[in-house]
Amino acid sequence: MYETILVPIDGSDPANRAVEHALAIADEYDAQIDLLYCVETFRYGEPALSSTEIVLDELEDRGQDLLTDLAERADNYGTDVSTCLCHGRPWEEILARAADVDADLIVIGYQGQSHTRDRRIGSTAERVVRTADRPVLTA
Predict the structure, then answer these.
(1) Which domains does the chain have, with CATH numbers?
(2) End-to-end distance of the chain based on CA atoms, in angstroms?
(3) Residue 8 CB-density burial (10 A; 0-12 exposed, 13-18 middle, 19+ buried)
(4) What pLDDT digit, counting tens, does each position of 65-81 carry?
(5) Burial, 41: exposed, middle or buried (Cβ in 10 Å; 0-12, 13-18, 19+)?
(6) E strands, the chain, where?
(7) In what order do the strands lie in the sheet with 136-138?
(8) Are strands 81-87 and 105-108 parallel, antiparallel or unpaired?
(9) Which element (helix H / strand E) includes 92?
(10) pTM (2 decimals)?
């Protein structure tokens, strides 16, 4: 039923729960996990000034560290995993990546790192759920 599961991550607790759900599903269906971390360049613009470049470099480093840690965790489960770090609007990049890897399922945290409202779905998760052309599981 599931061959490829896309899991967008940002280091938040809901994203970590999404990884746990994705690992369980991947184990059950012998599926591959594709981890995605998106640097939100629309918030800062593409680097032109040194301070913006420093912020984006730090976000990239953080994203790469998260991808590496979670890929190792998935590998410990015996799950095949691939990773991708991109720049852009997260919900757009999630949908694009899902199409690129032909994901059968997107497993996403119900809210992300920058979300401030308790128990409400975040804007990225809401846009993905609303516009995806494939099943989406929120965790």
Answers:
(1) 4-114 (3.40.50.620)
(2) 20
(3) buried
(4) 999 999 998 888 899 99
(5) middle
(6) 4-9, 32-39, 81-87, 105-108, 136-138
(7) 81-87, 32-39, 4-9, 105-108, 136-138
(8) unpaired
(9) helix 90-100
(10) 0.89
